[in-house]
Inverse folding.
């Protein structure tokens, strides 16, 4: 059941976002890797490729792998000049780097043959690309095109449930459940904020509640052990 002891309005989310950002700033936490790529490159292809690389891969590995690959192949046509082995070498040691190299090449082929080398700004079309699920599609829309979409990964799903904003079992359900709960202007920054917060404070196992400004009011749904 969604919590009823607080009003989940703009003022509430403003406060939470501000509190969490302050904690992360005090820890010296920088933007997640895909966001850094988005800020530096500012184009949907870079965001899409960086997000594919980021799946099951640590942030610093994602950032370095993305920079190496995109320096050699900044667009789909340039990517097709690289062999699958070369792409794999450039993104190593990202998780599943061989499979991702194959997907990145296939994605580039489709973008060139069907979209004139451009990334489509539509979640349905993006999800037809190899290796692209709802999370990658929404992050590409968010950071590549500035289109409002709630991008839910395991951190966003878990923290939203712990705080009692929603009650869901899967990230897919969370995306739908968050839409009526959260004012639109928070949709894009939500992922970036909660991914970082989930990595540093509200960790999957034993969250560091003692350093969280919400410690006293958070219902901590599903938390069995905390620090
Ligand atoms: S109080 Fe604990 S469970 Fe709640 S948001 Fe903070 S770190 Fe997460």
């Amino acid at each position: 059941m969604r919590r009823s002891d607080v009003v989940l309005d703009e003022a509430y989310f403003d406060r939470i976002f501000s509190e969490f950002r302050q904690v992360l700033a005090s820890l010296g936490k920088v933007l997640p890797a895909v966001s850094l790529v988005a800020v530096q490159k500012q184009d949907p292809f870079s965001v899409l490729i960086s997000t594919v690389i980021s799946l099951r891969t640590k942030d610093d590995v994602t950032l370095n792998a993305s920079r190496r690959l995109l320096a050699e192949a900044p667009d789909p046509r340039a990517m097709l000049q690289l062999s699958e082995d070369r792409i794999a070498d450039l993104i190593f040691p990202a998780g599943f780097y061989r499979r991702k190299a194959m997907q990145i090449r296939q994605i580039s082929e489709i973008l060139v043959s069907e979209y004139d080398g451009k990334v489509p700004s539509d979640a349905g079309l993006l999800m037809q690309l190899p290796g692209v699920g709802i999370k990658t599609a929404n992050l590409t829309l968010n950071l590549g095109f500035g289109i409002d979409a709630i991008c839910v990964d395991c951190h966003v799903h878990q923290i939203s449930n712990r705080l009692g904003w929603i009650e869901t079992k899967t990230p897919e359900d969370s995306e739908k459940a968050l839409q009526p709960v959260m004012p639109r202007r928070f949709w894009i920054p939500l992922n970036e904020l909660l991914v970082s917060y989930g990595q540093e404070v509200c960790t999957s196992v034993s969250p560091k509640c003692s350093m969280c400004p919400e410690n006293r009011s958070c219902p901590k749904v599903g938390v069995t052990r905390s620090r």
Summary: The mean pLDDT is 92. The domain at 10-30+150-211 is CATH 1.10.1670.10 (Endonuclease Iii, domain 2). The pocket of iron/sulfur cluster is lined by residues 159, 162-163, 201-202, 207-209, 212, 214-215, 218, 220, 223, 226 (CB under 6 Å). The chain has two domains: 10-30+150-211, 33-145.
